[in-house]
Amino acid sequence: MNVKSELTILENMQLVIEGKQPAWIPSYSYDCAVIVPAALDRKLDKQTGHLVDVFGTRYIDAADGQVPDHSMHRLTDVTKWREVMPKIDLSNVDWEEDARMMRAKHAANGQAVHLHAGFVWEQLHYMMGFEDALTALLVEPEAVFDCLNAIADFWIDAMRRYCKYLKPEFAVFFEHMATARGLLMSPSTYRSIIKPVQKKMYSAVSELGVIPEIHIDGYVEELVPDFVELGIRAIQPFQIMNDINHYKEKYGLIVFGGWDAFGPGNKEESTEEEIRESVRLAMDTYGPTYRYIFMGSGATARFGKHQAILADEAFKYGRTFYTS
C-alpha cells in the first residue's frame, strides 16, 4: 500500500487508529502531547518547596521524578475519606483559556493530544500509600468504593468541562495496578471495586467522542478483556511480558509501548547501539501489524542520555519503517 509522505501528524495518527498502514510509526515523544489542565496540575508550595496536587497530596523529588511523600499521608483511615476530600470549585476555572494556553504550549506542531484525564486507584494510593491502600481494598471495600467514586466524579466533571475546549484525540486515565509479575490485587477484587468506577469514567470519555485510553504498566493479560468491556481502545505502555500482537489482533487495540524496559537497551552501561537496537526490535515486532505507536516508557530519568538516543532512533527508524 502506498501512503503519501506529506501526511500531517494527525492524519498519520488517524490511519493508526483505523488499523491501516500509516506513513510512519508514530513516536509517543514526538507525535503525541500529554496535556494536564494547568488549573489541576501540581502546584508549588512556596513554604515547603514541594509540589501539591488538587487533593492535597505532597510530592518529593526522587531519582526517577516526583513521587508522593509517604512520610505524610493525607488519608490514614479510608472510612474517613470525606474528612480529607477537598472541595474544589471547577466553575471558577477559565477552561477555554486553560485549553488554549496548554495546546499552544504542548501541541503547537499538531501532535495528537492525550488529555491526562485523572486516576482513581492511583489517587487513593497517593493519599494512603500502596500498602495501606491495598489493605483497605480487603478490609474496607465499601469505603474504598465510595471514595473512588467521589474521586472519579471529580475527574469526570473536570474532563467534561475541559474537553469542550481542548478537543483531544485521546483521554487517558493512569492506573498502576500491576508489576512485571502480575496484578497487585486479585481480578475479583478489581472487578468488584475498581472496575465499576472505571466504567462510568470510560463511558463519559466515549460520550465525548474521545478515544478512551488506559496507562497501566506490567503484566495485565488477565484484565485485558475487562478493559475492552469498559470501552478502552488504547493501552499504554503495553509492555512485552504481555502478548501484544495477539491482543491487537483479537480486540483491535491501539498499542503504545512494546519497548523492553528490562532489556539491554535500558541499563546504566547500555551502549548507544544497544539502545538503538532496542527501539528497532520493538518496531520490527509490532509495527508490521499496525495500530502501533512506539513508547519508551520505563526509560529511567537517571540515564538522561539514554532517553535522547531512544527518541532520536524512534523518530529516524519509525519515519522510514514502511518505506525502506
Characterise this structure:
The protein has 324 residues and is α/β, with parallel strands linked by helices. It has two domains: 1-35 and 218-324, no CATH class; 37-216, TIM Barrel (Alpha-Beta Barrel), CATH 3.20.20. Helices cover 43% and strands 15% of the residues. It has helices at residues 9-17, 28-31, 81-84, 95-106, 121-128, 130-139, 141-166, 187-207, 224-229, 244-251, 272-286, 304-320, and strands spanning 32-35, 43-45, 50-52, 58-62, 65-68, 112-118, 170-174, 211-215, 234-238, 254-258, 292-295. The model has no long low-confidence stretch (mean pLDDT 93).
Main traits of this protein?
TIM Barrel; seven-stranded parallel beta sheet; four-stranded antiparallel beta sheet; 324 residues; globular; alpha/beta
The structure class reads alpha/beta
What is the level-2 CATH architecture name of the largest domain? Alpha-Beta Barrel
Q: Helix proportion of residues, in percent?
A: 40-55%
| Low-confidence runs | none
Helix and strand string, N-terminal first? HHEEEEEHHEHHHEHEHEHEHEH
Proportion of residues in extended strands: 15-25%
What is the averaged pLDDT score? 93
- The beta-strand count equals 11
Overall outline: globular
Radius of gyration: 20 Å
**CATH domain class of the largest domain:** Alpha Beta
Strand order across the biggest sheet?
A: 1-6-7-8-9-10-11
CATH topology of the largest domain: TIM Barrel
Compute the separation of the termini in Å: 13 Å
Helix segment tally: 12
Domains counted in the coordinates: how many?
2
Could you give a short account of the major beta sheet? 7 strands, parallel
